[in-house]
Amino acid sequence: MQAIQATQFGDPSVLAVVELPDPMPGPGQIAIDVTHAAVGLIDILFRQGQFKDVPGMAQPPFVPGLEVAGTVRALGDGVTGFAIGEKIVSMSAGAGTGGYASIYIAPVHGVLSIENSGIDPALAVSVIPNAAMAHVALTLVAHLAEGESVLVHGALGGFSSAFPGIARQLGASRVVGTVRSSKIEAAANTKLPYDRIVDSAELPGVLDGEKFDVIIDPVGGTVRSQSFALMKPGSRLIVAGNASGDWAHGMKTNDLWLGSTTVAGFNAGALLPSHPQALRRGLEAALKAAASGLCDIEVDVLPFSAAVTAHERMENRDLNGRIVLAPQL
Ligand SMILES: NC(=O)c1ccc[n+]([C@@H]2O[C@H](COP(=O)([O-])OP(=O)(O)OC[C@H]3O[C@@H](n4cnc5c(N)ncnc54)[C@H](OP(=O)(O)O)[C@@H]3O)[C@@H](O)[C@H]2O)c1
């Protein structure tokens, strides 16, 4: 098969197109003929070697990529419910690698059929895994109730952009986003179902005292600090990433007591393996949200040969939606 390898840790130039042996599915797995592989921030962090000392993390040479769309190539022992050639999308397979390849082996619990859905596979791989995670975060962790309000930081980012559609589907009354100043123009043109998007540099004043029941924060750093002023008794702040790279951020736990607020962590990789039913509900909700246009974002499709460009653009923040790599282009 054709694949893109990170030949060592380093800048985007360490990515190379290589030929590797075709993998076979084991018990409980599906082999996928990949048409589209999503590029995520986590792929960049893996390639840079930021998690290289964490036990179990991939070491070079490895194939980056978490999420793919394609068709069923072969079924491993014990797998039922999928037909050869069926159009599918797959979530991360645990190790967080292997997606930038023309064949991908996925555990069946993270695979969803998109046959007859009418959803473009490039959009499907860009939004369905993130929307499934958003559904789990908003239901299992944030306990979002109908009529509640939601604030989403990094509103146009790959992960964040799945939240407004799922929040709407769950009955949120109001969904507001924050972006950095450089994305205010893109925010004005988004089709995502936000009521309002504001500049995070102007928090908290720009919101004129508005408070939120749920705040989704994959950004961290300064916007996380500012989030506390946007909470009221009963609010839940979901810590779901650290795109700002500020690992020194801290908080005073006594403030939670005094304000009667909740801060909860959400990491799909840690939570989903022990919550397969929540994942399945999330995938089904994500399919409905994507099919009804609640997750429409810009998707740029590039050939495998442009993997270096794809990673450079992610690092330079030169995108308003997601980038997807296609082996057949
Ligand atoms: N909890 C989970 O299970 C889960 C799942 C997926 C992702 N994540 C996490 O969510 C975060 C975003 O991932 P993603 O795949 O959505 O990435 P992405 O598409 O690259 O989006 C990054 C987002 O963070 C914003 N951001 C703010 N400050 C930033 C900075 N200093 N550098 C880079 N970005 C900055 C970006 O804003 P601009 O648009 O203005 O650049 C963008 O909205 C990561 O920390 C990732 O690990 C968590």
TrEMBL record:
It holds the Pfam family ADH_zinc_N_2. InterPro entries: ADH-like_N, ER, GroES-like_sf, NAD(P)-bd_dom_sf, Zn-ADH-like_protein. The keyword Oxidoreductase applies. Signal peptide: none annotated. Its EC number is 1.6.5.5. Keywords: Oxidoreductase. GO terms for molecular function: quinone reductase (NADPH) activity. Coiled coil: none annotated. Gene3D superfamilies: Medium-chain alcohol dehydrogenases, catalytic domain (3.90.180.10), NAD(P)-binding Rossmann-like Domain (3.40.50.720). The keyword Iron does not apply. This is NADPH2:quinone reductase. It comes from Ancylobacter amanitiformis.
